[in-house]
Amino acid sequence: MIDIVLLHLKAGAGGNGRVSFRREKYVQKGGPDGGVGGHGGSIIVRADSSQTTLRSYAGVHEVLGKSGEPGGKKQCSGSAGGDVVLTVPVGTVLWLMSENQAAKRRRLSHGLEELAYSREVRREQFALEREGAALPPKTPDEAELPPTYSVKSLATMQPSNGDYKKLISLTEHGQEVVVCQGGFGGRGNLAFKSSRETTPLKAEFGTDGEERYIIFELQLLADIGLVGFPNAGKSTLLSVLSQARPKIGAYPFTTLEPELGIVANADNSKQFVLADIPGLISGASEGKGLGLAFLRHVRNTTGLLYVLSVPEEMLAGDPSPKECLANLEEQFRALQGELKAYDELLLEKRWAVCLTKKDLYSDEISKALEAAKFGGEKPILVSAATHDNLEVLRKRCFQILQ
Ligand SMILES: Nc1nc2c(ncn2[C@@H]2O[C@H](COP(=O)(O)OP(=O)(O)OP(=O)(O)O)[C@@H](O)[C@H]2O)c(=O)[nH]1
Ligand SMILES: [Mg+2]
Taking 90 as the threshold, does the pLDDT of residue 293 lie above it? Predict the structure, then answer.
């Protein structure tokens, strides 16, 4: 699943103003008629609920907007560069790595969502020695680009760890934001005509488009996230609690991509979204297993449901209730340790512990597990196979969300 990409975005520059003079038969010396340049195309990001991953941006490094055309003779305005619209899944968060001055000025004075007005942006003037001469060089915008990063570190990058500024979180279908506003067209020499200066050779450059390096991070929007070791029974739980049909397998790492399901209460009056993510293993924070990359999807959830089960290999050896409990407690500790290593804030979420595969345990073991406490909380013992106690688990989930 492609859930994080880094894009270099650059809106189109505004077209330059034109220096020209009217040439007509019988008119000896026509006045200035140089038109204004067209505005540059902007880059717009729009949330679209029909998209589920950032796959369409895999391998894309750069998106450039179209520049505005220069102004023409006979007072003709240059045509504007069209906008570029990038559609992304709902739940995409944009993080700013770096930006040019044009972008920075707007962000500081307007925020991201208000556009800069044309009149607020100063154009640089230029003067030609004669009509048709080449334009002098424009003073370059002081750039703060490009950023330093390694593509390799991108997959495990945690933009929210404070290194980058959050620009916006797109949470609704159709929501859109102009991330890079196009530059403005410069005025032609027609605009500089005055009683003192009847043949101005002056015009304006168009302004630079906004340019940004932005991390697009998809954070699935769920209310509760399932966390547990591989093979614990997370996906099975999702499949019996919701309509979702995730892949289930009697081997670790069956789930390779996050999956969402909608869980409803008995009379269907309340619902919440449950997220199943790939299993964690000890050492995940050091990059073992599938690593912690998928934890980004539980960052936005309100609650976490720890899913623990006694490993079947262990049950085959006829363990004592005490041994089973010790194993589950160790799983719980290890999971919390991994979450903490990823982001301590995850431990501040509301949570519950579900012990699953009850049908596989002896009455004696079940009794011991039911009486135990995890982090001071009573666990909920269920079986996804026989649907035992699922109602209690469901209720507990709704309680977490209250
Ligand atoms: N007997 C019994 N088996 C279960 C139960 N829940 C899950 N299983 C089995 O346990 C195995 C693992 O289940 P999954 O739901 O794929 O486990 P997971 O936690 O999603 O595993 P990963 O995706 O690898 O992290 C499968 O063979 C399931 O059939 C249960 O309540 N009772
Ligand atoms: Mg699974």
Answer: no
Decide: 384 in ligand 1 pocket, CB within 6 A.
yes
| Residue 228 sits in the same domain as residue 199 | no
Take atom 5 of ligand 1 and give the residue whose Cα is closest: 357
Write the single-letter amino acid at 340: K
> CA-CA distances (angstroms) from residue 348 to 276, 343, 345, 358?
19, 10, 5, 28
Average pLDDT taken over every residue of the chain: 89
Rg (CA), the chain: 30
Range of the domain at 185: 4-218
Of 197, 218, 239, which one is at a domain's C-terminal end?
A: 218
Nearest to 211, CA basis, from 121, 101, 122: 101
Q: With a 6 A CB cut-off, is 254 part of the ligand 1 pocket?
A: yes
pLDDT tens digits, 70-124:
999 998 899 999 999 999 998 899 999 889 988 998 999 888 889 999 888 899 9
Tokens found for residue 329: 């407690």
The CA-atom distances, in angstroms, between 355 and each of 234, 346, 348 are 10, 20, 21
3-state secondary structure 246-281: CCCCCCCCCCCCCEEEEEECCCCCCEEEEEECCCCC
Q: Which of 164, 196, 218 is the last residue of a domain?
A: 218
Instruction: Answer whether 235 contacts ligand 1 (Cβ < 6 A).
Output: yes
How many domains does the structure of the chain reveal?
Answer: 2
Residues 182 and 282 in one domain: no
Closest residue by CA, ligand 1 atom 10: 233
Q: Is residue 32 in contact with ligand 1, taking CB distance under 6 Å?
A: no
CA-247 nearest atom, ligand 1: 16
Does pTM top 0.85 for this prediction?
A: no
